[in-house]
Amino acid sequence: MQSLGCDVAALNTVQFSNHTGYGQWTGSRVSAQEITDLFQGLKQSYLDDFDMMLSGYVPGAEALEAVGRIAQELKTKAKKKPGSFFWVLDPVMGDNGNLYVAQDVVPVYKSLISHADLILPNQFEAELLSEVSIVDMPSLGRAIQVMHERYCIPHIIITSVSLAGGDDPSAPPPSSLCVVGSTMTSARRARAFKIVFPAIDCYFSGTGDMFAALTVVRMREAVWNTPGGDLVRTEAWRSADGVDALELPLAKAAEKVLASMHEVLTKTCLAMEEGLRRRRGEGVNGDDKTARLLKSKAAELKLVRHVDSLRNPKVEFRAVKV
């Protein structure tokens, strides 16, 4: 985010030696009181003049409630100036049918969604929030509509959607993934789009965090580039009902986010293969655990060395209506 021009104040919810994709780490989870204290420290020095907030992985219900109170306080402070604060909430709960947070975190997320402006659930998390089983594009559309109606959430992007094609021509083709997004109308009706992109046969950690961070930047950029300039002064940056799904700032933002993601992940995958070949050439093999750890290290996202892919990606994958 800083490489794209953002001034960032980071409140860590964990202090880990490395990400959990390695299967081993040291460190600790930050308590709800520590999160609150850190924010109070920002406030007392007048460092709480934020126009956007991104919340991601929070390991426990009490800590998540503390994060929610911070977001609600910032939204209340911005109430007199519509559009001056925007909360992007990534409801990190699990993936592929498995929770990796405590069960009591789920109802807390459900209580906070209505206060957010944009949520970024993956397919499994969208099922948890909507209570709709997503098996095809029609059920995915129902899940989005349910979330708009139930939580009055203005913007939704469901990430990494993978569906069995079957007889559904609207499903992503084999070896492809898609994201599906929507900005609701004033009547809470979905305006949905999807972006299909090729899957990369490699396991990465941190892609959800990367997607969320890029979305913050690109959403703000798309809103500020909207003709007329009125959208930046509109509550939750919700476009007028007459705006087509493909003209939504959310759709334009998602196109750029995926362009950066695809470039960085492709380059990371190539560097990973080269690095592993070099290790093998040096005679570094070791046992299964060593091999797994070396593969995890080789798969670290190559963000710094490919910063131009973050700043100026080539947009190849375009939004289409759902």
TrEMBL record:
Residues 80-165 form the Pyridoxamine kinase/Phosphomethylpyrimidine kinase domain. Its EC number is 2.7.1.35. CDD domains: pyridoxal_pyridoxamine_kinase. InterPro entries: PM/HMP-P_kinase-1, PyrdxlKinase, Ribokinase-like. Gene3D superfamilies: 3.40.1190.20. GO terms for cellular component: cytosol. GO terms for biological process: pyridoxal 5'-phosphate salvage. The keyword ATP-binding applies. Keywords: ATP-binding, Kinase, Nucleotide-binding, Transferase. One of its GO terms (molecular function) is ATP binding. Belongs to the pyridoxine kinase family. PANTHER family: PYRIDOXAL KINASE. This is pyridoxal kinase. It comes from Lasiosphaeria hispida.
